[in-house]
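re: ur question from yesterday

yeah so i grabbed the chain u mentioned. its 219 aa long if i counted rite. heres the sequnce exactly as i have it in my notes:
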Amino acid sequence: METLVISNPDTSYCKEKNYVRIAEVYHLGNEKDHFKYHVLVVDFIFSDDDNAMGKFLKQISYLFDELELTVDQEGNIVEVNNLNFLRLRWMKIAARLSETHRGEVIDNYFSQISGVLEDESRLIDFLGGYHMFGLLFNGLLQSFDTRRKRESSDGFTEIMTPVKEEEKITLTLTPENLDPTEIDHFRGLFVFKGDHYEEGFIEIKKNSTHLKHSLLWIG
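ran it thru and got these structure tokens back, copy pasting raw so excuse formatting
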């Protein structure tokens, strides 16, 4: 999974940051109509991990390098099964980072993370974001052959249009009703072969920031 962040594109102040996570996903079995998964992030590759902020973000990212999730038949996260483990891990990470990172901004950032971990529904929304695991658990586990719509967390409508070619299905995502939102541009692409999810890509432009989220499934 990769996220490319481009700040101030098309200007002389343009900056790019790249965040890559290599993850292993294990199916632990089914429970009623739900699936159980163990997600293990085995490596983080950050383009800015040679500076203080990059190292700080990398330490925060380790909080979510091991997840046990319950997912519905459509592919949406419905439960975080190791929530207590994450809370205890966050207490240790926050205590360690507080020794070298201080100030009101850091305190507010830590408070936001603690708040998310105390509310499972907020945590599920966070983990389901495209910058986290939204390309993997994207609600598209079940294949379909007609156009569908769904509401985005950013306030617009995503239109999903499938094109089938033999065993391969290419699903394009386009936006509807962008005007009331902060989003200037949105597009997406998912590729399936049979029941196998091969790759995904989401591009978002908003507030002078260009975000590119991509996932390549190997194995």
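noticed a couple things. The radius of gyration is 18 Å. also Helices lie at 52-61, 83-98, 104-118, 120-127.
anyway ttyl
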